[in-house]
Amino acid sequence: MSTSQPNIVIIMADFMSALALPMYGNATVRAPHMRRLGEEGVVFENAYCNAPLCAPSRASLLTGLLPSKMGVYDNGSELAAGIPTFAHYLRLAGYRTILSGKMHFVGPDQLHGFEERLTSDVVPSDFGWTPPPGGGVWVDDEFPDYPNLDEVADAGPCIRCLGIDYDDEVTFTSVNRLYQMAREEAGQPFLLTVSFIQPHPPFASPAEYWNRYDDRDIPMPSVAPIPVDAYDDLSRHLYEFGGMDRTDLSDDDVRRARHAYFAMISHIDARIGEILAALEATRFGSNTIVVITADHGNMLGERGLWGLRTFFEWSARVPLVFHCPRAFGAARVRTPVSLVDLLPTVVDLSGGGEAEALPNPVDGTSLAPHLHGRGDRPGRDVLVEYCGEGVPAPWLMLRRGRHKLVHCEKTAPMLFDLHDDPDERTDLAQSAAHASIRDALQEEILAQWNAASLPALIEESIQRRMTVFEANRRGRAPVWDHAVDNDPFRSWQRSYREAWQHTEERALLR
Questions:
Q1: Domain boundaries of the chain, sorted by first residue
Q2: What's the CA gap between 292 and 397, in Å, rounded?
Q3: What are the residues whose beta carbons fall under 8 Å from the beta carbon of 92, sequence distance 6 or more?
Q4: What is residue 151's predicted lDDT score, i.e. its pLDDT?
Q5: To the nearest whole number, what is the mean pLDDT of the chain?
Q6: Which of 180, 270, 402, 426 is paired with 497 by a 20 to 30 Å CA distance?
């Protein structure tokens, strides 16, 4: 371990589409801190999540592996404790590893390599969010009409909500921990992962951020709602699964929901500003790499769809920005990349060894050459999968260069040319002129995944988890949560054995 190793701060949000951010061309959203990071840092213009669903996406981000390789198929899946994450590798490289916020860990291991966790999670850690077996629909006696789009129809300003409360805690604990580490002057590099839950629905924002926008300035979706009978198979399945026909939405409803979503991003940006200010105040800033990303996006009414679970750009594209002016200059990288690339990249940047020499192979590739300006190298294929609820069989996606192919064993493929058709209006899969491209991409998908065997593996996993979940509901349930260590004896003047002056001297930071 060397004191010259950079600190690394990874800041991520939930449901934050790249296409809603200023560094990706959105002229409406006001996010000055992220805008500055994009102007001064390296922006990956075509970054994708590896699964448009929270838990599988985060598992890939942490491990550098595709979710299905780990059996993380849905939001009720467990990430096995024996799979190394970037937190494990950075600990081996001499880093202090700290997590504040949501990471959607399911199961007894609520750390996965992080030495400290400053908050509990915000979602269940048991198997209760496992989808019904047999591809069935969700049944909830308390909310019989769920899911639906009521949260879109109810969008607007608010005073407080769960997401605001949680992100307040995430921000405070992260900033406070930076100041504590500055006081310690230990010289040990740190990895701090800060994970917000907003702009996750409900679409609600405090008036301070809501009032930064006017409804008249909020653009409607680029692609208008498509009639249900004209949807592609994936969209139709998810439209029906999501109960999107249960809520009649007016144009005003759509505009207000987008207004709220943009305001929530402005709120997140203000929180990012607090963290950046703490880095500067503590003088960590000059030797800290700041990474901005998200687990997935939100369709936000494009094509008449809301939420996630699709491979369209608003859902699958995520921000990926690396900022450290001392280490690398501003640049924009067009090469398609994905979140599995984060682990090998931070291992490279940490000085913990070459990513190619990792003892446990990963699916990702280090992005360090791009960061250091060694050319916009030709990219490899980007792989994305969806193995969760609402579809008849797993959906698999491959992006190669300008083309994106979507494959499912039970439905027709889809092919898009994102260079000529960035809004994905024209499916080229049945075009004779594009047959060779379609066949080549489909061949690669079938080489990367055993698509025919996946449904049985998913069903077996669901059945096992449901058995455990039902058993654990009988009698005393196990505690799968993280108890935050906030021992006041270490922070405040709580012991008569130590003089007040000594405690205050430790806490003073000039």
A1: 7-507
A2: 24
A3: 352
A4: 93
A5: 93
A6: 180
Q: Report the alpha-carbon distance of residue 173 to residue 88 in Å, rounded.
A: 22
What is the C-alpha separation between 305 and 249, in angstroms, rounded? 11
Nearest to 292 by CA among 21, 5, 104, 94: 21
Task: Round to whole Å and give the CA distance between 439 and 378.
Answer: 21
Question: pLDDT tens, 201-237?
Answer: 999 999 999 999 999 999 999 999 999 999 999 999 9
DSSP conformational letter for 418: T
Lowest-confidence pick of 60-64, 100-104, 500-504:
500-504
Burial label, 62 (beta-carbon count in 10 A; 0-12, 13-18, 19+): buried
Kind and range of the H or E run holding 223: none
pLDDT of residue 1: 37
> Which is it for the CA torsion 216, 218, 219, 225, positive or negative?
negative
Which amino acids are annotated catalytic? 54, 104
Which residues, 6+ apart, have CB-to-CB distance to 280 below 8 Å? none
Contact 192, 177 (CB under 8 A): yes
Give residue 341's pLDDT.
97
* C-beta separation of 90 from 8 below 8 A: yes
- Please give the helix or strand (H or E) that residue 162 lies within, else none: helix 162-184
The pLDDT tens digits of the residues spanning 141-161 come to 766 777 889 999 999 999 999
- Sequence letter at residue 492: W
* pTM summary value: 0.95
* Amino acid at the residue 238: L
My answer on whether omega of the bond before 359 falls inside 30° of 0, hence cis, is: no
The dihedrals phi and psi of 99, each to the nearest 5 degrees, come to: -125, 135
Element (H, E) at 280: helix 251-281
Give the up-direction half-sphere exposure of residue 11: CA atoms within 13 A in the CB hemisphere: 27
Q: How many beta carbons lie within 10 A of that of residue 344, not counting itself?
A: 23
Distance between CA 119 and CA 377 in Å, rounded? 39
**In sequence order, what E strands does 337-490 have?**
337-338, 382-386, 395-400, 403-408, 411-417
If one counts every other C-beta atom within 10 angstroms of the C-beta of residue 88, the result is 18
Q: How far apart, in whole angstroms, are the C-alpha atoms of residue 54 and residue 389? A: 13
Residue 493 or residue 81, greater confidence: 81
- Spatial separation of the C-alpha atoms in residues 224 and 304, rounded to whole Å: 6
Say if strands 42-44 and 331-333 run parallel, antiparallel, or are unpaired: parallel
CATH node for 7-507: 3.40.720.10
Q: Is the pLDDT of residue 140 over 90?
A: no
Question: What are 211's two structure tokens?
Answer: 């009032």
On the 0-12 / 13-18 / 19+ scale of CB atoms within 10 A, 111 is middle
Q: How far from 144 is each of 129, 138, 141, CA to CA, in Å?
A: 16, 9, 5
291: helix, strand or coil: strand
> What span, in angstroms and rounded, lies between the C-alpha atoms of 384 and 192?
27
Cα separation of 203 and 258, whole Å? 8
